Amino acid sequence: MKYMLMMFGDGSTMMEAHDDQWVRDMIQFMGSFNEEITASGEWVSAEGLADPTTAKTLTLTDGQVVVTDGPFAEAKESLAGFWIWDVKDEARAIELATKILPWARRVELREVPAGPPEV
Predict the structure, then answer these.
(1) Distance of CA 84 to CAs 7, 44, 54, 65, 92, Å?
(2) What is the set of domains in the chain, with CATH numbers?
(3) Stretch 21-44: mean pLDDT
C-alpha cells in the first residue's frame, strides 16, 4: 500500500524559531530516516519544497487560465515537503509518520490508491 506523508511548516521562520543545532539535527535526522526507509525497501519518493512565496496558483475562470502568485490557501504554514512510501499497511505508515512529528509537529498521511475508484 502506498502512502503519502506531507510535512507542513514555515520555512521562512524556521531559522528564527529554532537554533542552528536544531536545524542541523533535523537535517541529520532526515538523511538517516531516508536511508532507513530506502534500506527497508519502502522508499518511493521524497522531496523538500521551495518556500511558498515561489508558488503559483492556476485557476480556470470563464475558460481562461489565470495565474497568480502564492499558494492557494492563506496560512502561515504550508506544505514543506513530502514522502511517498510503499508499506505493508496503514499501521506501518503511521509508525513511520510518528518519526517525523518531533521535527514537523503536524503531518498529514494519505493513502495513494492504485487507481481511480470504481464507479
Answers:
(1) 11, 5, 23, 30, 13
(2) 2-112 (3.30.70.1060)
(3) 94
